[in-house]
Amino acid sequence: MSFFSIKNFNLHIREKKILNDISFDLDKGEVLGIAGESGSGKSLTALSILNLLPNFSRKTGFIYFDNKCISDFTDKDMCKIRGKDISMIFQEPMTALNPLKSINEQVAEPLLIHSNHSKKEALEIANYYLEKVELPTNLLNDNVYPHELSGGQQQRVLIAKSLVLKPRIIIADEPTTSLDVTTQKGILDLLKNLVNQDGISLLLITHDLAVLAQCAHRVAIMKSGEILEIGNLEEIFKTKKHPYTKKLLNSVNYSPPKKNTSSKNILLSVKSVSTSYYNSQSLFSTKQNKSNILNDISFEIYEGEIFGVVGESGSGKSTLVKTILGLQNLEKGEILIKNKIIKANKFDDLSIRSMMQVVFQDPYGSFNPRHRIKRLIAEPFFLLNTIQTKKEIDEKVNYALEEVGLSPNDSYKFIHEFSGGQRQRIAIARALIIKPKLLILDEAVSSLDVSIKAQILDLLVELAYRYNLTYLFVSHDLSVVQNIANRVIVMKSGEIVEQGKAKQILTKPKKDYTKSLVEAIPIISRRLLNGGQIAK
Amino acid sequence: MSSYFFSRLKILILSLFFASLIIFFMIEIIPGDPASFMLGINAEPETVDALRKELGLDISRFERYFNWITGMLIGDFGVSYTYRVPVSELVMARIGVSIPLALYAIFLSTLIAIPIGIFSASNHGNFKDWSFMGFTQLGIAIPNFWFAMVLVLIFSIYLKWFSAGGVPGWDKGFFINLKALTLPAFALALPQASILARIMRSALIETLSQDYFRTARASGLTFFQAVKKHAFRNALIPVLTIIGLQFSFLIAGAIIIENVFFLPGIGRLIFQGIVQRDLIVVESVVMLLVFSVIIVNFLVDMAYLYVDPRLRVKK
Predict the structure, then answer these.
(1) Which residues of B touch A139 (CB under 8 A)?
(2) Which of A30, A396, A440, B181 is deepest in the core (most CB within 10 A)?
(3) For chain A, what is the mean pLDDT?
(4) Do B222 and A284 touch (CB under 8 A)?
(5) Which one of A52, A100, A170 would you mutate to disrupt binding with B, by most B Cβ within 10 Å of its Cβ?
(6) How many distinct helices (H) and strands (E) make up chain A?
(7) Which residue in A46, A54, A55, A48 sits closest to A10, CA to CA?
(8) How far is B225 from chain A (nearest CA, A)?
(9) Residue B234 to residue A97, Cβ atoms within 8 A
(10) Which region among A399-403, B79-83, B289-293 has the lowest average model confidence (pLDDT)?
(11) How confident is the model at residue B68 (pLDDT cuts 50, 70, 90)?
């Protein structure tokens, strides 16, 4: 018997079945990947192991660790295992650390609880592990607090915290999902090394099959609380026995038919735009800290093309979107759409505004929850000078809903009745209802599950063809941009590093920065997917 | 640290300046001339004018404002029109009641509220939480003067543990005064504690659902260890704000309780000042209260600095 196993585990929360008959083993030094889309029960499986379930949950089944049935343990007994034998790393490093405590104090905490170290010794050990997870040396002092660290560094701190007691199992729940590709690569390499060096077993939970392909020995595919199949990585990926596995794998790096209809007419031109933030120290202080967000950015978008913008977080992508939408003042330069200047924060010329619409990342936060879909979608009509009758508006709303694959009946519903993917469709319907020239997609597919992401990408390309739309496609996800965009710019700290044809730049990058980005994209090698027929 | 400190200090000084302007001119536009009020309606205009001159009311408003402000800076609050004694004397006599009373009430309120808040939050959603929150609802709903009278009825009249009112004065000893202030402080503390317990509860519930609390639990802390080491300090930030506001309220807002217990406090002084058109008393005492409110908020801001490292700017 393996030293860790789950047998026939079921979980109900408020009488709703969440996990159904979960069983798997974990061997020493093994990396078991659990993959699945949101709502599949991955995270609750992890929390079940540590018995940190939400209120009103009821469980049956067994979890064995070290020949003991830990699913029967009391909370007090579990406290002796948590953090000592089994430790956990969470998805959001930004919020997983206590903002009021210094990082070495937080890393040292498990030592103080589980062992008899003095505070001084514990801090020394903490610093040793912080060094081991390659935290920059200037952050190894006392009194360094989480807000002084980047997301990747915070995740390293959390990994150090999970390591200090030399646990036998680490559960990593989406450890890299909120991080940039380059940072993701660093964290995954670190985890892989730890498994190899110290023989720690790793339970890696992720929605990203490409991440699993990088480091898992075995994988389990989960859907709606059940494990559909489990086995060796190569076997699962090659045979694609279960149709759902096949669907997931096909959606990874999904490439919709490319659009190649761009004309030579310039739609949007951004001319040497610079902008910066000032943060003044106080009300009457004359000292101001200026930080450049965009620095001399110039590019042109032709009518009918899909134009990609890629870069890591903090590279100025979102600020660029804001300046184009006229929501942010420019310091230098100008932005023209159809030869008309976009003036920031001036709402006098509605015709300029009606030429562009935007779809944002978060499908949950971009709608007023108290309005019906009809009103939400009809919102942009105020940008048009022509007066619309109620009937016309109704017809257009219904048409727009059908266009994005929803039904006219949905127009009387509220936004909470829809799933994430459906909401993003509604956002697209809202953006397209006044037939804008330019549609800005700011990380519009980044928070969606792979299979839904593929559907939305298909929809976008189809609509672009039908109405000869122009897209500004902003994303940190290079693989998506590579597949959908005609031309692309690569941004780094407010500057354009490289620009040109998407395929060229993202397959044969010239600049080092772009190279590092491209190399960090996790990919499932063709050898894995096709059973070795085609070399990568 | 220093930039935060100085920015708060600047705000403090500016607030005091604008407050003094507003207080002075607000009271200027209240109808009723102190001199004619003091002399009655049948007074000769000449006598009124003479009294106005004596009280220093004949010079221009701006001059009076200037004299008032500069006087206060050196501790001279003027002379009361009706009592004919320096305002500072009147205030000093009463502040010895009001500030200890406010401190005592805040102490009691915090002592009651924080454990209730923590207890309710840890039992979030079940019967214990629910019944404690019912009690706090009651605490907010009960008028405190009524509660004060009930306290007097039980503890002074039936049980005869406490006197029904008045304070002996601080020269008579510390504990005897503390005992005299216990019932009024308790009456004042009840609604404050109810509000504070609710704030503590909701702030703590929020921090309990934070990711760092889960991290703490996942690294082996028991529920109460995790509350003590991680959640409590994070939940304290909104609680501090409310404590600051309550303290300011308790210094001036105790008028009714002071009346119930015959305490010569600041609240009663203002009330009498307004009734008797003793403008100099009203102005100075209100200014003093504003000063205490602003100082307390300044101290609360400084306490944030201690609690929250994100405010400590590193150079």
Answers:
(1) none
(2) A440
(3) 85
(4) no
(5) A100
(6) 20, 20
(7) A48
(8) 10
(9) no
(10) B79-83
(11) confident
Per the domain annotation, does A92 fall within a domain?
A: no
Residue type, A364: Y
- In which region does residue A165 sit, left (phi positive, over 0), alpha (psi from -120 to 50) or beta (all else)? alpha
Token output for A159: 């990994």
* B215: chain A residues, CB-CB within 8 Å: 88, 90, 96-98, 158, 161
Residue A41 and residue A73 share a domain: yes
Domains in chain A: how many in total? Answer: 2
Specify whether A248 is located in the same domain as A270.
no
Work out the minimum CA distance from A88 to partner chain B, whole angstroms.
6
Q: How many other CB atoms are there within 10 angstroms of residue B183's CB atom?
A: 23
Alpha helix ranges (H) inside B123-209: 127-141, 144-151, 174-208
> Residue A181 is which amino acid?
V
Which of A48, A52, A79 to mutate against chain B (most B CBs within 10 Å)?
Answer: A79
CB B237 within 8 A of CB B203: yes
Helix (H/G/I), strand (E/B), else coil: A479: helix
Domain co-membership, A293 together with A246: no
Here the ipTM equals 0.76
- Indicate yes or no: CB of B11 within 8 angstroms of CB of A99: no
Closest CA to A381 of A414, A357, A413: A357
Clarify whether residues A318 and A210 are in a common domain. no
**Judgement on whether residues A228 and A333 belong to the same structural domain of the protein:** no
For A111, name the nearest residue in chain B, comparing CA atoms only: B219
Q: Residue B225's CB: how many other CB atoms inside 10 A?
A: 15
Residue in chain A lying closest to B215 (CA): A96
pLDDT at B111 over 90: yes
Q: What is the pLDDT of residues A123-160, one digit of tens each?
A: 999 998 888 888 888 888 888 888 888 888 888 899 88
Question: Which chain B residue has its CA at the smallest distance from A75's CA?
Answer: B222
Pair A228, A373 in one domain: no
pLDDT of residue A346: 67
Residue A194 lies in a domain: no
The answer to whether A285 faces chain B, any CB pair under 8 Å, is yes
Write out the residue range of the structural domain in which residue A453 sits. 266-281+289-522
The CATH number linked to A496 is: 3.40.50.300
Domains with residue ranges and CATH for chain B: 2-73 (no CATH), 90-311 (1.10.3720.10)
Q: Does A99 touch chain B (CB under 8 A)?
A: yes
> By percentage, how much of chain B surpasses pLDDT 90?
10
Structural domain contains residue A536: no
Q: Does A70 touch chain B (CB under 8 A)?
A: no
- A99 with A62: CB under 8 angstroms? no
Q: Is residue A248 part of a domain?
A: yes
**Quick one: closest CA in B to A49, which residue?**
B218
Same domain flag for A237 and A276:
no
Phi, psi of A470 (to 5 degrees): -110, 135
- Name the pTM for this structure: 0.78
Nearest CA in chain B to A115: B220
pLDDT digits (tens, 9 = 90+) for A229-282: 999 888 888 888 888 888 888 877 677 776 666 678 888 999 988 988 765 544
User: Quick one: A231 and A379 in the same domain?
Assistant: no
Answer yes or no: do B220 and A100 touch at CB < 8 A. no
Query: Which residues on B lie below 8 Å from A110 (Cβ)?
Result: 219-220
CB contact under 8 A, B218 and A87: yes
Sequence length of chain B is: 315
